[in-house]
Amino acid sequence: MVRRVAILVAVLAVGAVPATADASSQDVASTHTYLTATYTVLHTAVSTWPKVEANIHGLDLRFQAECPDAGAGSPQNEEEQKLSYEVVGALWATGYETDAAIVRTYIHTLNGLRWSNPQITRDAHRLARGLQEMLALPVPNLCADIRAWHADGFGAMPSDVEPFDQHVEAIEIQEIPRRLLEPYVPPAERGLRERTERAATRFEEFEFTRGQADWIALLGVVGLNE
């Protein structure tokens, strides 16, 4: 149920293989820029994680003031899971808003990259579009939706909930496939690759531990089941 809460980025974990003879200088340069930008955004996201947590805590306080335990007594069923996923969307929106500046910089970099293989270019630009959609994601009106569901005797979910969930689920944030970029990574990039992998590992640790805790905490604030 829980997906990424703060910045969702592509992590490249390529082996240190020589660039092939037919690799163009643009291909090698674009791959270097991609690696560098990915490392930067991961490292910065980890460094600014306390700001994300502070803003998520602010979201908890907001809902605590507006609709504390509004879903208390609700059934744990398929309908309730729609609201539970809306909580995830609220956390995503808050995390991305916090890291908006670094995400926009990453998006700008991705949109400027070009490779001789058009598939790689399309993948980079698709990643940029997905991140842009996450930046535009609003915090849903969770309190109004829970109250409306409660008023209906926990029957049908308000009509806006499922479209929001489907929109969030449809956002694609996928890394550029490793096999496509391997020919353009020269041995000299080994250090950059290793730094990127370490930053990715650290980010994933934060993402898993804090993301789960934040989701459970906000569910508790509004009285919904896990």
Helix-residue proportion: 55-70%
Tally of structural domains = 1
Spatial gap, N to C terminus: 9 Å
Number of helices: 9
Shape: elongated
- Average pLDDT over all residues: 87
- Class of secondary structure makeup: mainly alpha
Note the beta-strand portion. under 5%
Total number of β-strand segments?
Answer: 0
Name the helix and strand elements from N-terminus to C-terminus, one letter apiece.
Answer: HHHHHHHHH
- Which consecutive residue ranges, at least 5 long each, have pLDDT under 50? 1-21
Radius of gyration from CA coordinates: 20 Å
Biggest sheet character? none
Structure report:
The chain has one domain (about 25-220). It is mostly helical and about 230 residues long. The N and C termini lie close together (about 10 Å). Helix 1 (about 25-45) packs antiparallel against helix 4, helix 2 (about 50-65) packs across helix 3 and helix 2 runs parallel beside helix 9. The chain has helices spanning about 25-45, 50-65, 80-100, 100-110, 120-135, 140-150, 160-170, 180, 190-220. The model is unreliable at about 1-20 (pLDDT under 50). It is built from 9 helices and no strands. Helix content is about 65%, strand content about 0%. About 35% of the residues are buried.
